[in-house]
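A reminder from the course coordinator: this example appears on the midterm review sheet, so study it carefully.

Given structure:
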């Protein structure tokens, strides 16, 4: 999953802005430095939002002139997808289906605290009536 950013030169620095994530912004002296800092800022903001129960905003801004794609870290995407797939079910309900404590499941939806195994993700997918697919591109 990617979000597009725009780089604008301001007072000798390059400012990075994300149209779809307005609370994420960063700076750099070079384009490479600005994009590296942007990835860190974007993932920090999104990880915090997901940890607080928010769903990731839709990436609406498409490719365009002067726009750069910045990838969302996989652990942030996974936590957000788990929260989204859970829907109206409580974390306690899913935890009971999985035979784990509420706190253990809660960590799965928190990208700051979680590092699930593939086996755990398979169990969660099955409990939600889904199938786990893993791709490396």
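Designed residues:
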């Amino acid at each position: 999953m990617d979000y597009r950013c725009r780089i604008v030169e301001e007072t000798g620095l390059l400012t990075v802005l994300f149209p779809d994530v307005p609370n994420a912004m960063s700076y750099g002296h070079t384009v490479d430095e600005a994009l590296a800092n942007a990835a860190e800022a974007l993932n920090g903001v999104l990880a915090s939002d997901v940890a607080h129960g928010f769903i990731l905003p839709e990436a609406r801004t498409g490719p365009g002139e002067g726009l750069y794609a910045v990838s969302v870290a996989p652990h942030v995407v996974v936590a957000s997808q788990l929260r989204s797939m859970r829907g109206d079910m409580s974390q306690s309900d899913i935890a009971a289906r999985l035979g784990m404590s509420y706190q253990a499941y809660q960590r799965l939806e928190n990208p700051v605290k979680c590092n699930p195994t593939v086996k755990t993700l398979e169990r969660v997918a099955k409990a939600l009536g889904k199938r786990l697919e893993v791709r490396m591109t």
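The CA atoms of residues 83 and 109 lie 6 Å apart. The chain has two domains: 2-71, 74-127.
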